[in-house]
Design goal:
The chain is an alpha+beta fold and 263 residues long. It contains 6 helices and 18 strands. It folds into 2 domains: 126 residues, Diaminopimelate Epimerase, Chain A, domain 1 (Roll); 123 residues, Diaminopimelate Epimerase, Chain A, domain 1 (Roll).
Amino acid sequence: MGIPVRQVDAFSERPFAGNPAGVCLLSGGREVSWMQNVAREMNLSETAFVAPRSDGFDLRWFTPAVEVELCGHATLATAHVLWEDGILAPGETARFHTASGVLLASRVGEEIELDFPAKPERASPCPPGLARALGVEPVYVGTSAFDVLALVADEATVRRLTPDIGLLRQVPARGVIVTAPSSSPGADFVSRFFAPAVGVDEDPVTGSAHCVLAPFWCARLGRDELVGYQASARGGTVRVRRVGDRIMLGGRAVTVLRGEMVV
């Protein structure tokens, strides 16, 4: 009997947009080397590995290069699969045990809402080479637990970035978030996320980056509920809601592939 595998476009209501994630449905734990090989085979920004336990599910995430401590879009994709495949009842909350603690996913109307830890940034000097790598001088730079955040002047600057990926790889962080206030209807801020250090040159839509973006923009805009748009080529919308030291990330998902791992 093979291992069920799904590919899900997360933070999107239609196929071929948002961020594709692999979801591998396991009956129990597997070796790290095996999971890393599967993630490399899937060749998506993240593949999630989920296995049942008495009080929920164990969940781990791997890029093609490394295991990561927090991933939003693959968690949303996993919750979507658990409900779609009938592993969880429609009104049940998904409870995931992860390297970042217990994470919850709930259905709210047609969206899935993730309960994630806030990862606020603090003002910091611009890392050497960052401005050169981006091709633009940031207005502000902050550093969070995982990433560097670079605020630039406007949405147009975010959208037209063509960074030097080789130079970005040298920035001492998991990834670089570039953001600006939105000038487009339907969003409060825009962003892009580059993480070549962990094998992802540009991530299409990044839930964990919004754990940094949400507290940053909520403080600046004076509101606890905002809409972010990640302006990658695929693009995707993330609704954020600040609740104390937690960030609720809302979005939709659609399954585009069902398969079976035979090795």
